[in-house]
Amino acid sequence: MKFESTIGNEQYQIELDENLTQAQINQAEISFEVVHQHTKKLILRVGTKVYKVDNISVNGNEVNFSVNGTFYSANVKDEDELLLEKLGFSSNNQSSAGTLAAPMPGKVLELLVSENDEVEAGQPVLILEAMKMENELKAPAAGIVEKILVSENDNVEKKQPLLEITARG
Predict the structure, then answer these.
(1) More confident residue, 133 or 49
(2) If 0-12 CB within 10 Å is exposed, 13-18 middle and 19+ buried, where does residue 145 land?
(3) Alpha carbon distance 41, 19 (integer Å)
(4) If we measure between CA atoms, which residue out of 94, 147, 100 comes closest to residue 125?
(5) Distances (CA, A) of 35 to 1, 25, 42, 104, 120
(6) Most buried residue among 5, 54, 95, 137 by CB atoms closer than 10 A?
(7) Contact 139, 119 (CB under 8 A)
(8) Cα–Cα distance, 6 to 62 (Å, whole number)
(9) Over 90: is that where the pLDDT of 22 sits?
(10) For residues 145 and 119, is the Cβ–Cβ distance under 8 A?
């Protein structure tokens, strides 16, 4: 899996192996181990160093987290988004404005809204478990939840539409 991440002014080219035990970050080879601890928290072991990664939230391409108490905000693009960008297409379509799509493959743990509920942009609407972490997905727009396209315990693919919101107005 290939990713590009921007944290502040620093850009990182990242390639992860399928077992999630090896990474190549800007040409440097790194062995690591991820140990899930609690919701939105994990322990990352790199060699003999241990890092506490906490306060993890994902909203589209934006990932916010803290490492040993220091907060970071990263913009993360996957292989598909990088290819579209390279070809000159905008990759900033998490789907249409009122559709929430899965940012990664995972399992729907909890639906936080029901059809016909009124939501605000950025309001948590669904919990998606992916890579041993629980991710709080947020409404892409303010409006009414028109249709929920998944159920709790459903496995979903990346970019699969999860729910549709009709804008107010």
Answers:
(1) 49
(2) buried
(3) 20
(4) 100
(5) 19, 20, 6, 19, 34
(6) 137
(7) yes
(8) 10
(9) yes
(10) yes
Cβ–Cβ under 8 Å, residues 91 and 14? no
DSSP per residue, 23-56: EEETTEEEE-EEEEEETTEEEEEETTEEEEEEEE
Query: What are residue 110's DSSP bridge partners?
Result: 127
Q: Which residues of the chain does CATH 2.40.50.100 include?
A: 94-167
Given a contact cutoff of 8 angstroms between Cβ atoms, the answer to whether 126 and 114 are in contact is: no
Q: How many Å apart are CA 109 and CA 102, to the nearest integer?
A: 13
pLDDT tens readout for residues 153-163? 999 998 899 99
pTM of the model: 0.53
CATH of span 2-81: 3.30.700.30
Report the CATH number of the 94-167 domain.
2.40.50.100
Domain with CATH 3.30.700.30 in the chain: 2-81
Asked if 57 and 73 touch (Cβ cutoff 8 Å), the reply is no
Torsion angles phi and psi, residue 131, rounded to 5: 55, 45
